[in-house]
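for the writeup, i need someone to sanity check this before i put it in the appendix. the sequnce is what the collaborator sent (i think, or maybe the updated version? ugh). structure was predicted straight from it, no edits. if anything looks off just tell me and ill rerun, i have time this weekend
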Amino acid sequence: MSDFKLTAEQKNILAKKLSHLSKASCQSCGGKEWIASENIFEMREFHGGNLVIGGQSAILPVIPVTCKKCGQTIFFNALTLGILNQGKENEQK
């Protein structure tokens, strides 16, 4: 089990913030059903193919949302959505 699974409170925030997706069509196939991940993922800053841990390397916490019909996946910033804040992000690590 991941330490980064969304809590019930975070799932409620996510549902409210992404409620507009119920009206949105997938840009790839026109599908209208979306599935939000229950996990928070990291996107790391690119360093020419080298894995850099720590230092000035940026990490962006994201929540993937996938079109149920074709699989197109879009990412939402967990900080911007209010799912995480800088304090909570550091506490979970």
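The longest helix spans residues 8-17. The radius of gyration is 15 Å.
thx in advance!!
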